Amino acid sequence: MSTILEVEALSKEFPVRRGLLQRQRGSVRAVDRVSLRLEEGECFALVGESGSGKTTLARSIIRLVEPSSGSVRFRGRELLELSPRELRRQRRDFQMIFQDPYGSLNPRMTVRKIVAEPIEVHRLIPRAEIPGRLRELLGLVGMPEDALDRYPHEFSGGQRQRIGIARALATEPSLLLADEPVSALDVSVQAQIINLLVDLQRRLGLTLLLIAHDLAVVEQIADRVAVMYLGRLVEVGNASEIFARPRHPYTVSLLSAVPVPDPTSGRQRILLPGEPPSPMDPPSGCAFHPRCPIVRQRCSTDEPALEERAGWPVGCHYPDEMSAPLIG
Amino acid sequence: MPDALLAVDGLSVAFPGAGGDVEVVRRLSFSVAPGEFVGLVGESGCGKSITALALLRLVPEPGRITAGRILLEGEDLLELAEPEMRRVRGRRIGMIFQEPMSALNPVLSVGFQIAEAVRVHHAVSRREAREEAVRLLDLVAIAAPRQRLKDYPHQLSGGQRQRVMIAIALAAKPDLVIADEPTTALDVTVQAQILELLEGLRQQLGLAVLLITHDLAVVAETCDRVVVMYAGQGVEEAPVEPLFAAPAHPYTRGLLAAVPTLGGAARGGDLPAIPGQVPEPASLPAGCAFHPRCADVMDECRQRQPEIYRVAERQTARCFLYEGPRPEASGS
């Protein structure tokens, strides 16, 4: 397996402006020195609660927001040094699928125009070949050909998400960023889209960077998982291993909080006190320490590094001390 | 059901459409016993939220209730004059919404809003109302409740706002609370806290809750009984254990199979999805509304609409699979 994407110490800070003159009064670090590596053809999931920085991280990686520092290498090429023109050209290799299939498709454009646009922008194939390519793309996502001359509002949420996927695939990208691709969909349709993504990933050899808050969905699709808390990665590893034996107390608690559709499971939830802190005012030491069930003195002063500890990287001074809840 | 706190009987709600009335809730019947947690589950557009509003007679114009009865302790709410109905809302039936930020008034302190809810329903002094607000905040497990009285909604986190909403819903000591997707907007660790709180309130106050949700896992963890809705109708009703262990209606079965589950068997694209889409209320298929998506479809499903049939003790389903020698259930 070869590496497709290498992220090193990536940070994104947003200025905080206050008062009448909107003077900058400090900054919020939404993404804090994140390093990760994606291999060709894998599905890598970023999980975390709202405000954890997972969306900002994904957008910084492809420079939809400009990172403040760090490095992103796509197949060895440093993305942060590309000129706007070079970046535009490179963008055909990484496309994005959004959560809201209502907001991300232009309501005044037919499906034909929506899906053809990236092909025309990047001048990928001769004009005459576009209709055939469009039929092929619609086939890939399981939409009928007669959808081409209709408008987004004529379709249901799941169908619109298929159209969004067809558009993302139009440039034959090798990396697909999917930001909460199924969280706006109903359960019965959600399963269709999950299956479609997995199928496409396998058939086209795509690398998938999945951003999701629903851990049950992540377990379905992901090969590897990175758990985020307040802008930092706290645990990174194989999905099956992390779900079976989470090591960071936050991962353990997060997994235990997921409701299970089985009234007889008799599972014990670990109830974390409080709510995720604001990145405006991050706690000292380990960011998780005010909510951590196994917090010690040291946690409020020393920030733990994300270190490989007998298995996979965990950012905790006391990994493995909380036992995994009974799952399934 | 004589001992029901709330009994809904044949409720229909319609909105005027281009080709006449469009029914979004169709002859829905169910009941909630005192102290019982009942889940009303379904996907978007199934009519569950309109049902919640209809129970309080708050269906937005130009929609209206076209048939049925809503019996609260035996009294039909649809017969009440509007001033009497106002005493039911809040006082006898509390309401919790999905998005507390839009349900709370942003320019009034939370202490004022809770005290106001107390004073609307009970003749007490301002000071007594404020003391009651402190007690309610404590009841919903907000730390340092007296200090929080002066806070405005934007100063609170999402979970704390939902706790304030619950405190307001409890201000008049209702017997029944309708909670419409109360944890959907919350993070999973905060959702766990709120579900724990509701469970605690049930034990402490004997509160009955009608939980309206799309999330079957939340239902499994909190409810005693479930009503599954599809295309405006109740299609299955059962206590949670049989519903999750042996779902009867093909829609319920499909829905349960399609939910990704932590530690579940299916993985990597093998999730059994339900084919097709939820139908629009204005263009429902003939016969059973679920038949175009149903794995067990039979000829008669395309021709006539199924009634509610008895599946087992306390379990009913609106499906021809259960028609026949079994005695027909009353629908509740």
Describe, in plain words, how this protein is organized in 3D:
The complex is a heterodimer of chains A (328) and B (332). Chain A is 27% helix and 24% strand. By secondary structure, chain A is an alpha/beta fold. Chain A folds into two domains: 3-244, Rossmann fold, CATH 3.40.50.300; 248-328, no CATH class. In chain A, the strands form three sheets. A six-stranded mixed beta sheet of chain A has the order 6-7-8-3-9-10, sandwiched between helices. In chain A, helix 6 links the parallel strand 7 (175-179) and strand 8 (207-212). The model of chain A has no long low-confidence stretch (mean pLDDT 91). By secondary structure, chain B is α/β, with parallel strands linked by helices. Chain B folds into two domains: 6-92 and 175-322, Rossmann fold (3-Layer(aba) Sandwich); 100-173, no CATH class. Helix content of chain B is 32%, strand content 23%. Chain B has helices spanning 48-55, 82-88, 100-103, 110-121, 126-139, 145-148, 158-170, 188-205, 216-222, 240-245, 250-258, 299-303, and strands at residues 6-17, 20-32, 37-41, 64-72, 75-76, 93-96, 176-180, 208-213, 225-230, 233-239, 309-312, 315-317. In chain B, helix 4 (110-121) packs across helix 5 (126-139), helix 4 (110-121) runs parallel beside helix 7 and helix 5 (126-139) crosses helix 7. In chain B, 49% of the residues are buried. Mean pLDDT of chain B is 91; it is low at 327-332. The chains are: A alpha/beta (328), B alpha/beta (332). At the A-B interface, helix 5, helix 6, helix 7 and helix 9 of A face helix 7, helix 8, helix 9, helix 10 and helix 11 of B.
